[in-house]
Amino acid sequence: MRHTFAAATRHDTACKNGAMTDPFLWLEDVTAERSLDWVRERNARTLAEYTENAEFSALESRILDVLDTDDRIPYAGMRGEYLYNFWRDGDHKRGIWRRTTLEQYRTENPEWDVLLDVDALAEREDENWVWAGASVLRPEQSRALLSFSRGGADASVVREFDIEKREFVGGDHAFDVPEAKTSISWIDTDTVYVGTDFGEGSMTDSGYPRIAKRWHRGTPLTEAVTVFEGETTDVSVGASYDDTPGYERHFVGRSMDFYNSERYQLLPDGSKVRIDTPDDAGSSVYRDWLTIRPRTDWDVDGTVYPAGSLLAANYADFLAGSRELTPLFTPDEHTSLEQGTWTRNHLLLVRLSDVQTKLSVLTPNDTGWEEKPLDGVPELTASGIISTDPRTSDSFFVNSSGFTTPATLLYGTVGGPLEPVKQAPSFFDADGMSVAQHFAVSDDGTEIPYFVVRRDDVTGPCPTMLYGYGGFENSMVPGYSGSVGFAWLERGGAYVVANIRGGGEYGPSWHTQAVREGRHKAFEDFAAVARDLVARGITTSKQLGIQGGSNGGLLMGVMLTRYPELFGAIVCQVPLLDMKRYHLLLAGASWMAEYGDPDNPDDWKFISEYSPYQNTDATADYPPILVTTSTRDDRVHPGHARKMTALLEKQGHEVWYYENIEGGHGGAADNAQAAFKSALTFTFLWEMLTRP
């Protein structure tokens, strides 16, 4: 039964007579002293309640040991003769950027060439730098464009780095870009494509670049030449260069929203030709091939290719008007395409069959495409392609792990055997633990899969942590977590992951069913899983805790306000909660294809039915909730978490709050902060679900 509330007791922040009635709007002023004083007061209360004891300290320390251990797999990106890795541990809180050779990497203890120590950089410059990525110049690998954010925000500065000299280039000839949400990529040693904040009108409403420019070394950024412009209502605009030898090409494009885009090839005379795929299709150009993944059924001259298919066409012929397409993958009710990655001569595919992975190799030849299974991947694990270098080889890395199986990294070359090269350690005793997959029935009759992990000797209802996301076509596949193992499973708890609609577990349609006016389906799916867990005797409502972040934080807010009777406790992290104003805050405008436009009365009609901040009830019996966010989150505004907490406090509900001053949207800027955040989550849920 859906939980409903009387309209008279529902909180309302809508406009009435032209004035806002939101009493906590002031908390959206992120760094105002009044706001930060409010944050500090609540942080102190939460820390005093849950963290100032030996048990919490021991758990936090154990989680940090997992995050810092040198026995972790150093995942690396293949770039010609080198493999690049960014690494954090106890001695390198902010991390080091390093590289090695394949020969060295395959040894038990590789020799790493450290290119940059971010801790030393931050100390030297007295800045709170957090690593945000690197773009290495190919094929020379002599220069790199390094990105750093302050405190883990999405916005970053870009600085050119001389790899051979191990120093920043500096001066007027360097490709350095001030702090912004920047996109930048190499064309050649002296030229880049850049999109950034060029001044008034250069950014979209979502806060991303609206203009792509070509920037030549030695000229000011203000003199970079515009190659493409989008609309302010677009999400973003970008330009890129394909440096594949013999196939050098320039591309530009615009993303009108999260799921619709246009892409063009720039021709030598400066004109552009559109790659005329459906706006909502994903596409990729590699050498002679164009691959297309439509998100809705695509009728091509009377042949309908279903949503979630993968199609191939000769790229030159397609630009010339041919629509000869070869289906490489066709979904069914149980199977979807999770990943497609090129090596030099082959296409590697990862399928999900009822949320379990299967890998194969496709090879184009004179007669078409040949497909073979990729053998040697461990069974009962979730596997994915970690890295390839299609410019130089047919080699690849595959990572496999499961809920109770630590990750194994395998290396292979298409046509040869797969060789385990790295093995992550076990952080908890998985003997006597098992994983089961069940299906709950949602309100409309759809079967919703979910995984349950627990000790075999726990036969009755037990404290259970249920995790969910349900948005943006992100699939929740099995994966190993040492902290979940020793902080929850070893103690006798059950851990559950729900594969609700809004995700991508069954392809695009699994997602599109739950966007905009269909959003309620994701919420109904999650509630159905909660009820099924109780019906199967795995837990009770009092013992069932739930956790989710970002879009999953929205899910948690809806569970609190719509289904409070199903849960014993909730952890709501970096959440979206005020759906009346989400599109006005930071990157919120970029998500309107997912949720709808609150300023459109037709859209607000369905959004208003679930928006947590507008649907709290002072008379309802809510479970205790822990709300967490980050001051430095410049993707989902911390005002969502702050205002919801203030409102719940005013209404007399049990709400706990913690805001990390750093961390960005991930909530943590280093391993120590991540360990603290995890320990707080486990401690809160265990105490709430086991209290009398």
Describe this structure in words.
It holds the Pfam family Peptidase_S9_N. Residues 486-689 form the Peptidase S9 prolyl oligopeptidase catalytic domain. Residues 15-238 form the Peptidase S9A N-terminal domain. The chain contains 13 helices and 41 strands. Strand 4 (82-89) and strand 5 (92-101) form a beta hairpin. Helix 2 (54-68) crosses helix 13 and helix 6 (482-489) packs parallel to helix 13 (671-690). The two termini are 27 Å apart. Among the domains are: 46-64 and 427-594 and 622-690, Alpha/Beta hydrolase fold, catalytic domain (Rossmann fold, 3-Layer(aba) Sandwich); 337-424. The chain is of the alpha+beta class and 692 residues long. Helices cover 20% and strands 34% of the residues. The longest helix is centred in the C-terminal third of the chain and has 20 residues, at 671-690. The strands form ten sheets. Strands 34-35-37-36-38-39-40-41 form an eight-stranded mixed beta sheet, with helices on both faces. Strands 7, 8, 9, 10 and 11 form a five-stranded antiparallel beta sheet that branches. A four-stranded antiparallel beta sheet has the order 3-4-5-6. The model is unreliable at 1-20 (pLDDT under 50).
